[in-house]
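#struct-help
A.M.: can someone run this one for me? Single chain, 176 residues.
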Amino acid sequence: MYVFEDFIDSSKFSDIYYKERRDYFISAFKQDKLGNATDLDIDLIEEGYSGHEMGDVVVDAQLYEGPSGRRDYSTFKKLYGVLPETVQLIPHRKALHVLNKHATVIASKYETGSVEFYKLFARFVELYVESDYDDYLVDGNPTDVTRAYWSFLLCYKDEVTRVDVSDETEDWNFLP
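D.P.: on it. Structure tokens below:
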């Protein structure tokens, strides 16, 4: 198992601009997809840190630390399937990749996942957490966790589609 801090690109997180862009990513998701942005979220969005549309679960989890950290835990869980404090328990980079892939799709203006995509993600997270963050996610004998992992990754090709932004709908009630 690697040390959580070793995974973090500290130069990325220490860059104030990158941190602001990560805050923007979460706030834009709240506004565009959940429809529950706060005044603080809207202020951040209006500052214009747009353009960062990929999940980064490790750095985003750090935005929730300390007394001045973010407190919208349910938003983080919608994006990543786990709470911020859980991220440091995850020993496998491939699992973090799955969380990032889900966040990227669910927050995207340009892609949308099918109901099956979201079900497979939820199944992976459920089994992975129940396994106490199985270190043998990909290697070793197949388990329910490895099958859920591969099912989610392989479904991307058929279960994620491009969205014509001009026809984008405001009805995001299907979100898990």
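A.M.: thanks! The two ends are 30 Å apart (CA to CA).
D.P.: also worth noting: The CA atoms of residues 23 and 30 lie 11 Å apart.
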